[in-house]
Amino acid sequence: MIDNLQTNHLSSAFQSGIDGYQRGGTLVRDASANLAQSNKHAVDINRAVIDITAGSIQAEASASVIKRADGMIGTIIDTFA
Question: pTM score, two decimals?
């Protein structure tokens, strides 16, 4: 049926997508928290905005990886079903 190598690669791609999505979300969350505290202490607003943008792009790209891995899993299931 489906060999272990294919399963491991799909699992790895899926996990990489999830990890990247979480890192992107963490970056956005932390930068947003820093920006929200800017009235209480000095915050590099430019850095916070760059981090929010970068985190958003990372999360979006990682979501695309997850969708593609999911599509490949669906194709394999359809092929062997």
Answer: 0.77
